[in-house]
Amino acid sequence: MNNYSNSKKFGQKTVLTIYAHADDEVLPAAGTLTIMSKAGWNVRCLILTDGSLSSSSIKGTRHQEAEAAGKIIGATYEFYALEECKFSTQAVIKVVEEAIMRWQPDLIITHAPQPEKYGHRDHEVCAIAVSNVATRKNIALWYSAPPVFVRGFEPNFFVDITSVIEEKIAAIGCYDSEQAKTFMQLDAILVLSRFWARELGQKDGYFEAFEIARQCVNASFFFNLSTSNECAETQKLIM
Ligand SMILES: [Zn+2]
Questions:
Q1: CA of 51 relative to ligand 1 center, distance in Å
Q2: How far is it, in rounded angstroms, from Cα 31 to Cα 40?
Q3: Cα–Cα distances in Å, from 117 out to 6, 58, 79, 146, 152?
Q4: Is residue 22 within 8 Å of residue 47, measured between CB atoms?
Q5: Ion ligand 1 — residues with CB < 5 Å
Q6: Where are the alpha helices (DSSP H) in 39-185?
Q7: pLDDT tens string 126-153
Q8: Domains of the chain by range and CATH?
Q9: Amino acid 2: pLDDT
């Protein structure tokens, strides 16, 4: 594990993303994470595997690519080397519980659990394990959109990422080794971002979609929503 030691500032909110492979985080969430880091959130991306089983002919660069993406979106990374296509739910639960102890996240984002025939096996195991821990520890949990085959994903939270679409494209572009994947290409990124805008009835703009799986709020949540300024828009993200 490569562990970053820069500490959380007092009162700062932390979002912890947990994904099976480096690149899984940027495709569905780079825009939202960029906005959160600009708003002062501590953005931590945990990657479970080293990506060595990727179909890409370029090997061994995924972690450097992730760190380059992190500089753009304002995130720091933590890497594990669980065995791809073989790691167990129990192994992920252990990693996630340790990460929660370290970072005390206010929000966790992970893969959306999907019916088995659609999702990548590693995404599915990760989603189940992370959901188990977040539920037991009562931490807000969002599922992000699958790269393809969105069946089983029920988005109910949409983030306007129009202002940071260039950062999203640049962050995805850091993954040179994965550019042959059709869903990593520019037209696919823009079409999916537009698709979520159309889902909202908007012709223009780019969005990312999430499914809120778990949320718990205190009274200040409603006070924050009742004030209509930029700050309140940010507060909507705070569970
Ligand atoms: Zn993946």
A1: 8
A2: 15
A3: 40, 28, 27, 13, 11
A4: yes
A5: 20-21, 24
A6: 62-73, 89-103, 121-136, 165-173
A7: 999 999 999 999 999 999 999 887 888 9
A8: 14-235 (3.40.50.10320)
A9: 43
